[in-house]
Write a structure and sequence with these properties.
Elements lengths: L1 H16 L32 E3 L5 E6 L16 H4 L8 E3 L6 E7 L4 H19 L4 E7 L4 H12 L5 H10 L1 H4 L6 H8 L6 H7 L3 H16 L7 E4 L2 E3 L5 H21 L3
Parallel strand pairs: 4-5
Antiparallel strand pairs: 1-2, 3-5, 4-6, 6-7
Length: about 270
């Protein structure tokens, strides 16, 4: 039991840093300014201090008003067209391309909240909305820290049909590969489970166009107001919290009905 407790204490800072932060390949460890509170949340060093939620709990995404960290430009209330703008890498998407609603998840592979969503909520979202043609679901990479960055490059180098499987494996097996320092062998061990060879894995790390493309995805997310993971866009609405299936239903179903009504009323 003591060994497990020590391991948890070692991994906790790295895991939490995978949920809030600014740098693509910065260290995964928390600084003094990023120490988690009792609820296990953390906020980025040098960024805006989060506030308490109305219920009194800690909300790592409820930033106080102020200029964005680093002076970068952030689009206020982006349009759907701005949200859907893509860069050099193809979108990793599931569901009908013409689905009435698009949900985008910004995720870091070292984030335990992303793991929780993928385990508890995504299967219901897939069965109820994606597989039925109501939602197109997109994952956009928002790696925070060197460890997450290294795993994300491997994830993008997987065959497209293996992406979602490997994404789930990285989340499910976080305890085996997430650490303060980058450990390539454990990261490769996860990637190998979808058939990736060591030669492919090592070559991937030298793929500068892939790295540049991932930086574009993250920088664009920042411009759209994403500050941590998971953050979601449902249509053009940015939601900075871990969503439950009940919350997804409440937001998605009115949009689906509105699209159906608009289609029914369109001239034929």
């Amino acid at each position: 039991m003591k060994i497990k407790g020590a391991l948890a204490a070692l991994l906790l800072p790295a895991l939490l840093a995978g949920c809030a932060g600014e740098s693509l390949f910065a260290n995964d460890g928390l600084t003094a300014d990023e120490a988690p509170d009792a609820a296990g949340a953390a906020y980025p060093s040098g960024g805006e201090k989060p506030s308490k939620s109305a219920a009194g709990g800690f909300n790592p995404y409820a930033a106080q008003p102020g200029p964005p960290p680093g002076g970068r430009q952030v689009i206020d209330s982006p349009t759907l067209a701005q949200v859907m703008e893509t860069g050099p890498l193809p979108e990793m998407a599931w569901g009908r391309a013409d689905a009435p609603v698009t949900i985008i998840k910004y995720a870091s592979l070292t984030c335990p909240y992303c793991r929780r969503f993928h385990k508890q909520t995504f299967p219901k979202l897939k069965a109820e909305f994606i597989d039925t043609g109501k939602v197109r679901f997109i994952i956009r990479e928002f790696p925070i820290g060197k460890t997450s960055g290294a795993a994300t490059i491997a994830l993008r180098c997987a065959k497209p049909e293996k992406y979602l499987e490997l994404y789930g494996l990285f989340l499910e097996q976080q305890a085996s590969w997430v650490s303060q320092e980058v450990r390539l062998d454990p990261i490769y061990k996860v990637a190998s489970q979808v058939g990736m060879t060591r030669q492919q894995f090592d070559a991937c790390r030298e793929n500068q166009s892939m790295i540049d493309g991932l930086k574009w995805v993250k920088d664009r997310g920042r411009t759209l107001g994403v500050i941590g993971t998971p953050n979601f866009f449902i249509g053009s609405k940015l939601v900075k919290k871990v969503l439950t299936i009940e919350e997804i239903r409440a937001m998605v179903e009115p949009l689906v009905r509105a699209r159906a009504a608009a289609a029914a009323g369109a001239p034929r």
